[in-house]
Amino acid sequence: AQTVTQSQPEMSVQEAETVTLSCTYDTSESNYYLFWYKQPPSRQMILVIRQEAYKQQNATENRFSVNFQKAAKSFSLKISDSQLGDTAMYFCAFMKHDSGTYKYIFGTGTRLKVLA
Amino acid sequence: DVKVTQSSRYLVKRTGEKVFLECVQDMDHENMFWYRQDPGLGLRLIYFSYDVKMKEKGDIPEGYSVSREKKERFSLILESASTNQTSMYLCASSSLGGEAFFGQGTRLTVV
Question: Are B89 and B102 in contact (CB under 8 A)?
Protein backbone atom coordinates (compact mmCIF):
# COMPACT_ATOMS: atom_id res chain seq x y z
CA ALA A 1 0.00 0.00 0.00
CA GLN A 2 1.15 3.50 -0.75
CA THR A 3 2.05 5.68 2.21
CA VAL A 4 3.17 9.26 2.62
CA THR A 5 5.27 10.26 5.64
CA GLN A 6 5.89 13.74 6.96
CA SER A 7 8.24 13.39 9.90
CA GLN A 8 8.11 17.01 11.11
CA PRO A 9 4.82 17.75 12.91
CA GLU A 10 5.80 21.36 13.58
CA MET A 11 8.42 23.78 12.33
CA SER A 12 9.17 27.45 12.67
CA VAL A 13 11.25 29.85 10.62
CA GLN A 14 12.17 33.50 10.84
CA GLU A 15 10.69 35.83 8.30
CA ALA A 16 12.87 36.11 5.16
CA GLU A 17 14.70 32.88 5.97
CA THR A 18 14.54 29.58 4.09
CA VAL A 19 12.89 26.43 5.40
CA THR A 20 12.62 22.89 4.05
CA LEU A 21 9.73 20.54 4.78
CA SER A 22 10.37 16.82 4.37
CA CYS A 23 8.20 14.18 2.76
CA THR A 24 8.88 10.57 1.90
CA TYR A 25 6.56 8.15 0.19
CA ASP A 26 6.38 4.50 -0.61
CA THR A 27 5.10 3.10 -3.88
CA SER A 28 5.83 0.39 -6.40
CA GLU A 29 4.43 2.43 -9.27
CA SER A 30 6.62 4.23 -11.78
CA ASN A 31 4.19 6.88 -12.97
CA TYR A 32 2.57 9.10 -10.38
CA TYR A 33 2.20 12.68 -9.27
CA LEU A 34 3.25 14.41 -6.09
CA PHE A 35 1.83 17.57 -4.60
CA TRP A 36 2.32 20.00 -1.77
CA TYR A 37 -0.84 21.60 -0.43
CA LYS A 38 -1.12 24.52 1.96
CA GLN A 39 -3.91 24.96 4.49
CA PRO A 40 -3.84 28.41 6.12
CA PRO A 41 -5.66 28.99 9.40
CA SER A 42 -8.81 29.89 7.40
CA ARG A 43 -8.81 26.23 6.31
CA GLN A 44 -9.16 26.39 2.53
CA MET A 45 -6.64 23.92 1.15
CA ILE A 46 -4.78 25.21 -1.89
CA LEU A 47 -2.18 23.70 -4.20
CA VAL A 48 1.37 24.97 -3.75
CA ILE A 49 3.30 22.90 -6.24
CA ARG A 50 3.04 19.76 -8.34
CA GLN A 51 5.65 17.28 -9.63
CA GLU A 52 5.24 14.60 -12.25
CA ALA A 53 7.35 11.53 -11.44
CA TYR A 54 8.52 11.13 -15.03
CA LYS A 55 10.07 14.60 -15.02
CA GLN A 56 13.61 14.79 -13.69
CA GLN A 57 13.56 18.56 -13.36
CA ASN A 58 12.42 19.82 -9.98
CA ALA A 59 9.27 21.95 -10.03
CA THR A 60 9.45 25.60 -9.01
CA GLU A 61 6.72 28.14 -8.29
CA ASN A 62 8.10 31.54 -7.31
CA ARG A 63 9.49 31.14 -3.76
CA PHE A 64 8.49 27.48 -3.58
CA SER A 65 10.60 24.68 -5.01
CA VAL A 66 10.88 20.96 -4.51
CA ASN A 67 13.75 18.52 -4.25
CA PHE A 68 12.43 15.37 -5.90
CA GLN A 69 14.60 12.30 -5.42
CA LYS A 70 12.76 9.48 -7.15
CA ALA A 71 15.13 6.68 -6.20
CA ALA A 72 15.05 7.73 -2.57
CA LYS A 73 11.27 8.37 -2.75
CA SER A 74 11.75 11.78 -1.25
CA PHE A 75 9.86 14.97 -2.08
CA SER A 76 10.83 17.94 0.07
CA LEU A 77 9.46 21.48 -0.18
CA LYS A 78 11.73 24.49 0.12
CA ILE A 79 10.27 27.87 0.92
CA SER A 80 12.63 30.76 0.28
CA ASP A 81 12.27 34.26 1.70
CA SER A 82 9.57 33.07 4.12
CA GLN A 83 6.66 35.44 4.67
CA LEU A 84 4.15 35.69 7.49
CA GLY A 85 1.45 34.55 5.05
CA ASP A 86 3.27 31.24 4.67
CA THR A 87 2.12 30.27 8.16
CA ALA A 88 -0.06 27.21 7.56
CA MET A 89 -0.35 23.45 7.63
CA TYR A 90 1.46 21.88 4.71
CA PHE A 91 0.44 18.51 3.36
CA CYS A 92 2.41 16.31 1.03
CA ALA A 93 0.24 14.19 -1.25
CA PHE A 94 0.71 11.31 -3.66
CA MET A 95 -1.72 10.70 -6.49
CA LYS A 96 -2.21 7.21 -7.85
CA HIS A 97 -4.37 5.58 -10.47
CA ASP A 98 -6.89 3.24 -8.86
CA SER A 99 -10.19 1.66 -9.87
CA GLY A 100 -10.31 3.57 -13.13
CA THR A 101 -9.72 6.92 -11.53
CA TYR A 102 -7.22 8.80 -9.41
CA LYS A 103 -6.89 8.87 -5.65
CA TYR A 104 -4.87 11.14 -3.44
CA ILE A 105 -3.00 9.95 -0.36
CA PHE A 106 -1.97 12.60 2.12
CA GLY A 107 0.68 12.79 4.79
CA THR A 108 -0.11 13.85 8.34
CA GLY A 109 1.00 17.42 7.71
CA THR A 110 3.62 19.86 8.99
CA ARG A 111 2.51 22.95 10.85
CA LEU A 112 4.76 25.82 9.80
CA LYS A 113 4.93 29.04 11.73
CA VAL A 114 6.75 32.04 10.28
CA LEU A 115 8.05 34.32 13.00
CA ALA A 116 8.29 38.10 12.65
CA ASP B 1 -12.68 31.33 -10.33
CA VAL B 2 -13.10 27.61 -9.75
CA LYS B 3 -15.07 26.60 -6.73
CA VAL B 4 -15.88 23.73 -4.45
CA THR B 5 -18.56 24.75 -2.00
CA GLN B 6 -19.55 22.92 1.16
CA SER B 7 -22.97 23.66 2.55
CA SER B 8 -21.92 24.45 6.11
CA ARG B 9 -18.74 25.63 7.84
CA TYR B 10 -19.89 24.64 11.30
CA LEU B 11 -22.45 22.04 12.31
CA VAL B 12 -23.56 20.73 15.69
CA LYS B 13 -25.63 17.55 15.78
CA ARG B 14 -26.88 15.17 18.43
CA THR B 15 -25.82 11.55 18.78
CA GLY B 16 -28.03 9.30 16.65
CA GLU B 17 -29.10 12.00 14.20
CA LYS B 18 -28.82 11.48 10.47
CA VAL B 19 -26.45 14.12 9.09
CA PHE B 20 -26.05 15.32 5.52
CA LEU B 21 -22.96 17.16 4.32
CA GLU B 22 -23.32 18.64 0.87
CA CYS B 23 -20.62 19.53 -1.63
CA VAL B 24 -20.99 21.24 -5.00
CA GLN B 25 -18.32 21.91 -7.62
CA ASP B 26 -18.58 24.10 -10.70
CA MET B 27 -15.64 22.72 -12.68
CA ASP B 28 -17.36 19.78 -14.38
CA HIS B 29 -14.92 17.44 -12.63
CA GLU B 30 -15.37 13.70 -12.89
CA ASN B 31 -13.88 12.89 -9.51
CA MET B 32 -15.16 13.94 -6.12
CA PHE B 33 -13.85 13.00 -2.69
CA TRP B 34 -14.76 13.20 0.97
CA TYR B 35 -11.94 13.35 3.49
CA ARG B 36 -11.87 13.51 7.22
CA GLN B 37 -9.14 15.62 8.85
CA ASP B 38 -8.02 14.99 12.41
CA PRO B 39 -4.94 16.37 14.21
CA GLY B 40 -1.94 14.10 13.80
CA LEU B 41 -3.75 11.87 11.31
CA GLY B 42 -3.77 14.09 8.24
CA LEU B 43 -6.51 13.60 5.66
CA ARG B 44 -8.14 10.22 5.47
CA LEU B 45 -10.31 9.24 2.53
CA ILE B 46 -13.88 8.26 3.40
CA TYR B 47 -15.42 7.79 -0.05
CA PHE B 48 -14.82 8.91 -3.58
CA SER B 49 -16.81 8.99 -6.79
CA TYR B 50 -15.53 8.97 -10.36
CA ASP B 51 -18.88 9.36 -12.09
CA VAL B 52 -22.53 10.01 -11.43
CA LYS B 53 -24.07 7.24 -9.31
CA MET B 54 -20.63 5.62 -8.94
CA LYS B 55 -18.90 5.41 -5.57
CA GLU B 56 -15.93 3.65 -4.06
CA LYS B 57 -15.00 3.13 -0.43
CA GLY B 58 -11.93 4.86 0.83
CA ASP B 59 -9.89 3.98 3.89
CA ILE B 60 -12.47 4.74 6.59
CA PRO B 61 -15.99 4.25 5.17
CA GLU B 62 -17.58 2.71 8.28
CA GLY B 63 -20.49 4.77 9.56
CA TYR B 64 -20.72 6.82 6.36
CA SER B 65 -22.47 6.63 3.03
CA VAL B 66 -22.47 8.89 -0.02
CA SER B 67 -24.71 9.93 -2.85
CA ARG B 68 -23.91 11.35 -6.26
CA GLU B 69 -27.06 11.89 -8.29
CA LYS B 70 -25.65 14.77 -10.32
CA LYS B 71 -22.12 15.33 -11.56
CA GLU B 72 -21.65 18.56 -9.62
CA ARG B 73 -22.95 17.35 -6.27
CA PHE B 74 -21.51 14.81 -3.83
CA SER B 75 -23.19 14.24 -0.48
CA LEU B 76 -21.76 12.60 2.62
CA ILE B 77 -24.27 10.97 4.95
CA LEU B 78 -23.73 9.99 8.56
CA GLU B 79 -26.50 7.46 9.09
CA SER B 80 -26.45 7.71 12.89
CA ALA B 81 -23.99 10.30 14.14
CA SER B 82 -21.67 9.33 16.95
CA THR B 83 -19.27 11.41 19.04
CA ASN B 84 -16.26 9.77 17.39
CA GLN B 85 -17.38 11.34 14.11
CA THR B 86 -16.68 14.80 15.48
CA SER B 87 -14.13 16.09 13.00
CA MET B 88 -13.31 18.38 10.11
CA TYR B 89 -14.75 17.14 6.81
CA LEU B 90 -13.22 18.23 3.53
CA CYS B 91 -14.71 17.78 0.08
CA ALA B 92 -12.54 17.87 -3.03
CA SER B 93 -12.93 17.45 -6.76
CA SER B 94 -10.55 16.84 -9.62
CA SER B 95 -10.44 16.10 -13.30
CA LEU B 96 -8.85 12.82 -14.34
CA GLY B 97 -5.19 13.04 -13.34
CA GLY B 98 -5.47 16.66 -12.30
CA GLU B 99 -4.91 18.47 -9.03
CA ALA B 100 -7.55 18.33 -6.33
CA PHE B 101 -9.55 21.44 -5.47
CA PHE B 102 -10.92 21.66 -1.97
CA GLY B 103 -13.92 23.16 -0.28
CA GLN B 104 -13.60 25.30 2.83
CA GLY B 105 -14.35 22.40 5.17
CA THR B 106 -17.16 21.61 7.59
CA ARG B 107 -16.38 21.41 11.28
CA LEU B 108 -18.86 18.86 12.64
CA THR B 109 -19.43 18.44 16.36
CA VAL B 110 -21.56 15.55 17.57
CA VAL B 111 -22.81 15.96 21.13
Answer: no
